[in-house]
Amino acid sequence: MWNIAYNILISVAALFLVPYYLLKMLLTGKYRKSIGPKFGFIPSGVFDAMEGRPRIWVHAVSVGEVTAAAPVISSLREELPDACIVLSTSTETGQEMARGMVTDATTVFYYPLDIPPVIRRVMDRVRPDIFVPVETEVWPNFIRLCRKRGIRVAMVNGRISPRSFRKYRLTRFFWKDIFNMIDKIGAISPIDEVRLKDLGVYASKVHLMGNAKYDGLAAKSSPSLRDEIGAVLNIPAGSSVLVAGSTHGGEEEVVLDVYRRLRDSYPELLLIIVPRHIERTEEVQTLIRSKGFAPAITMTEIMKGRERRSEPIIVIDVIGELFKVYSLATVVFCGGSLVPKGGQNILEAAAWGKVVLYGPSMEDFSQEKEALERVGAGITVTNADAFLRDMDMLMAHPDILRDRGEAGRQMVRANMGASRRYAGLIMSLLEE
Question: 87 is in which domain, residue-wise?
Fold first, then answer.
């Protein structure tokens, strides 16, 4: 009954969403790469390399989930060198990152829309032995078809944010059955484990296993990566840099106001802004000019041959560069937090040994926030004045800045090991 209602709801939503996405595609070019594959029209060449057994299908929605999926796939590859391990993503940014970062995957493609004929079309091509969703990415029709075809399902890095938990609880009667079609669920933390059980997931299915993102981030942070991005942006080692990462509308204005005031005391301080959505680049440039600064140089301009000289502000308008850019920071501000967006992944900066500032809206990353604040590597700022005060304190005391950042780095390293546990969880299902 609920399955019928769900599919009726999808059909009604499609009447409104399809015209919207088509318009976005025509006006901005967004979704052009993904729209066909999401309807199951995946080029046959994508599947040509699919040889070996078992066949493991890992799904990571976007950039954050790809970060968690990568070390799990690497661990699986070590244990099962002859396996066919495929990775799907839902977003174009996630797809680009997966192609460049997850070298242990046999092939990468787009995840199909949750429409039964579309799912069957793609599943017939992949023919997985096991499906592995990352971070509570659950689509009812897909999970039901896995159950019908005898495909095992193992969720890794399972997490339920406070906002998601409230939504799931409102329709618990529906989600309880869907979640219990999953064979095993690996949860990030005790809080996520409790929330899953509160939603009606059988206790025997839920296993506390940690956060695989720690493994991926710790493994990626290397001096060579810092030297590479420093050379591209012409920023020598030791430069004073404020990196504002994953910013949303309403946050760049605060960052620029703080930056202007900091420059009175630290005239050599550089600012790098990395908007969460790169299509907002021109909007950010307009804001920069309105604040009295000269136009920023963009990474696209640099990659086309324009050398950065004395420009104090850089805007990163290229996907997949944020993690590397964090390596250049003296201090990091992580966006999606001064506006009510739930925050962004602060572990990326912490892996480089950076102290991270963020606003009060960190609901989606509350556990990471608590972990960093316990060691002094994370600081909540509620407004521009608090932002300026804490920035000034950190800049004026490089020894404190260094010690706190190193404590954050060590915290990330101390939490490594989850990816191997998740690989073990997947393999145990394959062996049953």
Answer: 35-212+417-431
